[in-house]
Amino acid sequence: MRILGFDTSAKAASVALSENGKLISEFYLDSGFTHSETVLPMAKAVLDAARITPSDVDLFAVNCGPGSFTGLRIGIAAVKALGMSLDKPCAAVSTLEALAYNMQSTGGIICAAMDARCNQVYTAFFESDGINITRLCEDRAITTDVLFEDIKKLSAEKGEKIWLVGDGANLCLKKFGDEFVRIAPPQLVLGHASGTCIAAEKLFESGKVLSAGELMPNYLRLAQAEREKLQKEGKL
Questions:
Q1: Can you tell me the distance from the alpha carbon of 17 to that of 106, in angstroms, rounded to the nearest whole number?
Q2: Domain count, the chain
Q3: Is residue 39 very low, low, confident or very high in pLDDT (cuts 50, 70, 90)?
Q4: CB within 10 Å: which end of the chain, N or C, has fewer?
């Protein structure tokens, strides 16, 4: 099975191609250019390098959230267009789960954390046995203070430090110190679409694929403008 995975959920973007669990090619870019400018050229480069056409892809996958609202919409729009035009299934991957696969071979407890601004993070815990990733909780949007208490408790229960991955990892390390956490190596801290492909294959095996039209972003929280509007109306 060939999977083309997209990650446009944060500042860095990447596109990867996998076949039967093996990474074939990957393009990672943290240039500051907008994802709308780069993601389709990246996808073309990944496919061209493997001498594969979009019609040869069996499953299109994308990180559907949490993450940058605009970034998520760009990646989802690209995958919707490919899936609809080629009548191929799609996989809606959790950005946090894709991040956890960065540390798949390391073993231990993994905290995927993305900076949600306003002293909040998007986060979830996972556990790796060196081969498989097991989810320990659902994706959440919580304050860094709540996350710190959760990390302290989990670290005490497991008797080990918690791995941090994601663009919120350095933020957490700076605030928490290194008593309970350790940060992933620099090349593994941020998201890679290779993790999107791995997570998508698991979804396919579980029969959890979607049509292109069913793909939707999972923001986990309202946009700031929406929150402010509800506050003014006394509904929040």
A1: 23
A2: 2
A3: very high
A4: C
The pLDDT tens digits for 173-190 are: 999 999 999 999 999 999
| Domain harbouring 64, CATH code | 3.30.420.40
Take residue 45 and report the two structure tokens written for it. Answer: 């480069």
Closest CA to 222 of 147, 125, 120: 120
**Confidence class for position 236, pLDDT limits 50, 70, 90:** very low
Name which of 50, 72, 49, 47 is nearest 62 in CA terms.
72
In a 10 Å sphere around its CB, with 0-12 CB exposed, 13-18 middle and 19+ buried, how is residue 87 labelled?
exposed
112-123 confidence digits (pLDDT tens): 999 999 899 999
DSSP class of residue 30 equals: -
Closest CA to 39 of 98, 92, 89, 80: 80
Regarding whether 224 and 177 lie in a shared domain, the answer is no
Average pLDDT over the chain, rounded to an integer: 94
75: exposed, middle or buried (Cβ count in 10 Å: 0-12, 13-18, 19+): buried
Q: Is 87 contained in some domain?
A: yes
